[in-house]
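Subgroup meeting minutes
Present: P.N., E.W., G.H.
Scribe: E.W.

1. P.N. recapped why we're keeping a running log of single-chain structure predictions: easier to compare across weeks, and new members can see raw inputs and outputs side by side.
2. G.H. added today's entry (335 aa).
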Amino acid sequence: MHILVLGATGFIGSHIARAAVERGHTVRAFSRPSSDPMALEGLDVDRAFGDIESVDSLIAAMEGCQAVVHAAGYYPATATPRAVHCDRARRQIQNVLQAAREAGVRRLVYTSSISTIGPIPPGRLGTEADHYWPGQMHHPYWDCKWIQEQAVLSAPDLEAIALIPSAVFGPGDVKPTTGTLLLAIDRIGARVAVNGRVNVVDVRDVAHAHVVALTRGRPGERYLIGGHNITVPEALRAAAHALGCPGPMITLPAFIFRWPSLLLDIYLTRRGGGPTAAAYFLEALGAHQWIDATKAVRELNLHPRPLKHTFADAVSWFREHGYFDRPLGQLMKLS
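Output recorded in log:
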């Protein structure tokens, strides 16, 4: 199959491209001309350059492709009103859908976010039947991802499938996303943890599920792509072990940080900074998002690898590429 991967130089997108090539697909990798191609080094892919804001560049990249994997999700990183972020997210996904129709693409696999299942009651696991509703949370990321997923699944004339990864870790996090946690622990340690629950999945398992979804995913369906339901202290302990440093000794309730984080978010936004990842993270902890990934196990051949392997491989990759020798502030600017 000839496929186009949008966001192919990103953390998840590059692994999807790699997994697709390994399974015999012909891959065209789409990114901005300014994107760092490091994640695609040594990979036999065609390159296509453009911008999701440009329908023409998307159409040109999709020509001759049978399927598109959209792993270039919108993240509201600028100091802009919520409504403007939502409009941008809506415009970008409509550009992709329009281009797919005009280029004759039939199948679209969209990388969504665990935010689209919304807050889950503490007494049960989240499933694909759970849905976030606009305005439930403060950080604009929640609404933006909901808008894009809804647009994909309601698109006419497309075999559209939404894959919903949980917290993704692993090697190859070129512009550190979740990997920033490992880099921060290396600098400042992990003796204090925030109480909360998280599901952690390996980026390679996420990529494998995407490639399987190209042929076996059911159009119109959502699939939760999860790995391990653990507490935040457990996650920090596993990460610290991979780094060779002590794990947390103290666990504090998340609500202690919630309002200071939101106030800092408002302050930074007014000063010209964007919404912070920390504010989203603390909101996500309060959403109790332990999940049931049985559907993806059954239909997309998802078999999560051990968490210790995920963290160990991520740390090895960062060390091999010199990330631990660079200032943390410099690395965060790459994100």
